[in-house]
Design brief:
single chain; mainly beta; 7 helices; 9% helix; globular; disordered C terminus; Nucleoporin Nup120/160 beta-propeller domain-containing protein; Beta-prop_Nup120_160
């Protein structure tokens, strides 16, 4: 079944390595299965998978209807990525399921935004092999946590959606919540108790006001976490705010002084964003008179707004690299059809790529002009949609059992699958990157392959 002609396909699960084929060949061949879904009514949603072969640089997407309960269970029990983030996003990205990995075997945390976006419900779910479905009902074969649900209430609306991170080393579940008023709240739950009512609820809370959001300089659009101590907020003007908690001699403090804020913005964006600041500052907030009517006013949409963020740690690329020497990289997809790679250590954009335009005949142009230029307008190229979604999936190699294959696994290569939500001709693109094994610096990052949606092309060219 071809992919429906909709710009709202989104990745719904961390990539699952199918196999490391031909370990004696050079280079080592990696094959992944990437899961994705389409928007729509819960009963009509299509769930699909795409096989990615990094040696042949091929993409093979297929779409098949799947029962939602089976899909949720499949996503919940899959392998999580390095930061422990794994989720199935429900309708409007206001609900999801996060695996607890080895911390609490055969259990997941289900979350959903309630109360007109001012409440967050967390629920610990367990399943058995008898029916294979996690549920909160009292049916036979389902084990419930003594305290099945925990409701967190906030004074203002939740920005985008919460981010759940499993800290495997510290045995914590961290829940990041950003509010539209500019405050970021970090909850830390101790496992395996979590929401267990048999003992005292063990939770630590830290609150931080983001200065540029609280004072009205800009408005946050969506959120992303790089781990238990680093949080990102993508803003409407193209700036991404990085929050980092700084440890002291006695551990992490909940005070505001223990946080550091950094603004990630490419040089070209900064010069243009300044023209919006007076307008944004004067029209940021409007407050209604009725209960629960506080809201953020409509702001001019900019072409630099990021609509997808994804990150990875170099320790997941280099098997032998100590974690203390590891670096974080951030990938950002913005409405101006640019894919940017950021070095978090240097707080600098190290690579900017213009996503290719593809004509109806399947021809790709990787040297097209930047969005907004005269030629771009004349050809009818459109900016990407404003709604943030998981459009980026990072494919990291998995180590094999032999020392020889392990050495090849340390070659510093990684791959990234992008879904470009172009309303006229959406497509999948495969990018490949190489990191320096000694410094962790990015040596190469470029387009390797692409695959148009069959519904739009009628062919399998790619």
């Amino acid at each position: 079944m071809p992919i429906k002609p909709s710009p709202h396909v989104w990745f719904s699960q961390a990539n699952v390595p199918l196999a490391n084929l031909h370990p004696d060949s050079e280079p080592l061949r990696h094959v992944y299965q990437v899961q994705f879904a389409t928007d729509g009514d819960e009963r009509m949603r299509d769930f699909g998978s795409m096989t990615v072969d990094t040696s042949e640089m091929s993409l093979q997407p297929t779409v098949q209807p799947m029962d939602p309960s089976r899909w949720k269970l499949f996503c919940a029990r899959g392998a999580s990525d390095d930061d422990g983030q794994l989720g199935w996003y429900g309708e409007s990205r206001h609900s999801g399921i996060t695996s607890l990995g080895n911390l609490v075997p055969d259990a997941v945390v289900s979350w959903r935004v309630t109360g007109q976006k001012r409440g967050l419900e967390l629920c610990l779910l367990r399943w058995t092999e008898s029916n294979g479905v996690a549920a909160t009902s009292g049916r036979e074969g389902i084990h419930r946590s003594p305290l099945a649900k925990l409701l967190l209430c906030f004074p203002s609306d939740i920005m985008s959606c919460p981010v759940l991170v499993v800290d495997q080393q510290q045995h914590h579940l961290v829940v990041w919540v950003a509010l539209v008023t500019g405050y970021v709240i970090r909850f830390q739950f101790q496992t395996p108790q979590l929401f267990d009512a048999k003992g005292m609820l063990s939770v630590r809370t830290a609150v931080h006001p983001v200065s540029s959001l609280v004072n009205g300089k800009r408005v946050g659009v969506f959120t992303h976490a790089m781990g238990a101590e680093s949080f990102l907020i993508g803003c409407h003007d193209g700036v991404t705010i990085l929050l980092e908690r700084q440890p002291s001699s006695y551990g992490y403090s909940s005070s505001t002084q223990s946080w550091q804020e950094h603004e990630l913005a490419a040089a070209g964006i900064l010069s243009q964003v300044r023209t919006f600041i007076p307008y944004v500052s004067s029209r940021l907030f409007t407050t209604g008179t009725g209960q629960g009517t506080s809201s953020v006013s409509t702001l001019p949409t900019t072409e630099w707004q990021p609509i997808a963020l994804a990150s990875f740690n170099t320790s997941t690329v280099f098997a032998q690299q100590p974690r203390e020497l590891a670096q974080h990289y951030l990938l950002s997809l913005s409405r101006d059809r640019k894919l940017r790679v950021w070095s978090i250590a240097r707080k600098h954009c190290v690579k900017t790529l213009a996503l290719p335009h593809i004509n109806p005949y399947g021809k790709v142009d990787v040297t097209h002009p930047t969005a907004g230029s005269a030629k771009d307008r004349s050809t009818g190229a459109l900016h990407l949609p404003t709604t943030p979604r998981p459009y980026i999936r990072i494919l990291l190699p998995t180590a094999t059992s032999t020392n020889e294959s392990q050495h090849r696994y340390d070659d510093g290569t990684f791959h990234v699958v992008i879904y470009l939500p172009d309303e006229r001709q959406p497509y999948f693109a495969l990018y490949g990157g190489v990191l320096d094994p000694h410094t962790g610096h990015l040596l190469d990052f470029s387009l390797r392959s692409y695959r148009l949606c069959p519904e739009f092309t009628g062919s399998d060219r790619g």
